[in-house]
Amino acid sequence: MAEYFQTLDSLIALQKRVMALATQQAQEQAARTGTLMLVLAFVVLVLGVGTTWLITRSITRALGGEPAYASHIAAEIAAGNLAVTIQTAAGDGHSLLAQMRAMRDALAQVVASVRGSSEAVASASGQIAQGNHDLSARTESQASALEETAASMEQLSSTVRHNADNAQQANALAQSASQVATQGGAVVAQVVDTMRGISSASQRIADIIGVIDGIAFQTNILALNAAVEAARAGEQGRGFAVVASEVRQLAQRSAEAAKEIKLLIHDSSAQVQQGTQLVDNAGSTMDEVVASIRRVTDIMGEISAASREQSAGVAQVGEAVTQMDQATQQNAALVEEMAAAAGSLSQQARDLVQAVAVFHLTGTAPHAAQHGRAQGSAAGTRAPQGCHASAAPLGGPAYLALPD
Q1: DSSP H or E stretch at residue 391
Q2: 10-residue stretch averages of pLDDT, the chain, 404 residues long
Q3: Is the pTM of this model over 0.70?
Q4: What ranges do the domains of the chain cover?
Q5: How far apart are CA 314 and CA 160, in angstroms?
Q6: In CATH, what is the architecture of 150-333?
Q7: Closest CA to 255 of 284, 215, 297, 221
Q8: Pairing of strands 398-401, 388-391
Q9: Are the beta carbons of 68 and 79 closer than 8 angstroms?
Q10: In which element (H, E) is residue 400 found?
């Protein structure tokens, strides 16, 4: 049992020596490893610093400047400040900042063109809208005038139709009057012929009365001769004397009656001649009346035809005025639509002007990134040393270029 414990103690002592040796070896190995780690760490640090410098230089060359500065420029352009200063190295035409500068120049030109065009469109659309408004007012006034003209033409058409009807009735009456006048002329001609016959008969009666007067004169002479012969015969011729006296008295009364009849016939002939003259004058007047009525009939016929043509012409004019009124109303509607479209275009142009107003194209823009401001920026947007400046387009600030 004692040997067992001695052996166990010996084993424990051996293990302790082994452990001490292992510990010493481990400490030595740890010391060598620490030294190696320090060397490796230094090498890695040197390599990391070099790699970082190379990467930073490559990124800086690719960007054309510091990333914070590039971010600042991008933010300014995104905010609409196209007059921002973009600093690049001399001869740099491929870096991000150089491309951003080219983009800024192109955007500035586009925005300037769009702004000018939109302002011109806004002004032109405003003028068009005003012109359309004036045209709409004039078109509405013309439409109102055409409506009044259409109403007046309708009244005129009714009046012309009424006049045409009256002219037609007057033409019919004139034709009837012409027929009556013609018939009257024929009757007057018959009366003239009759009066001429009466005048001729009166002349023959006067001749007969002259013959009767001659017979009475001769009878009176014969009665006087018979009385003379009866006086010569004495008592035997007394009865014959009485008869001769009676015959002479009859002859005297016949002569007196013939004289009175002759006077009456003379007066009647004078009156008949005067009547014949009057009837001749009446016939001439009736002929003139008939001719005048015929002329009036012809004129009324022409007036009736002209009235019918005028009525047809007025109807055509009324239809034309109605069509013009409809066309004017359609034009008024189109003008209103054009005015609305011009107003919408003007509003869109104003909206476009307001939309492009966010871009600043001058060097005095409130969002311009000045070089002094970049140096004092907390984001570290200062340009590298040795940069040179170049002028910005459209009145913008100068550029700064990085050295090679």
Answers
A1: strand 388-391
A2: 73 79 82 84 85 74 74 81 76 76 82 81 80 79 80 80 80 79 78 78 79 80 78 72 76 78 78 78 79 81 80 81 82 81 80 76 43 35 39 36 34
A3: no
A4: 20-48, 150-333
A5: 8
A6: Orthogonal Bundle (1.10)
A7: 215
A8: antiparallel
A9: no
A10: strand 398-401
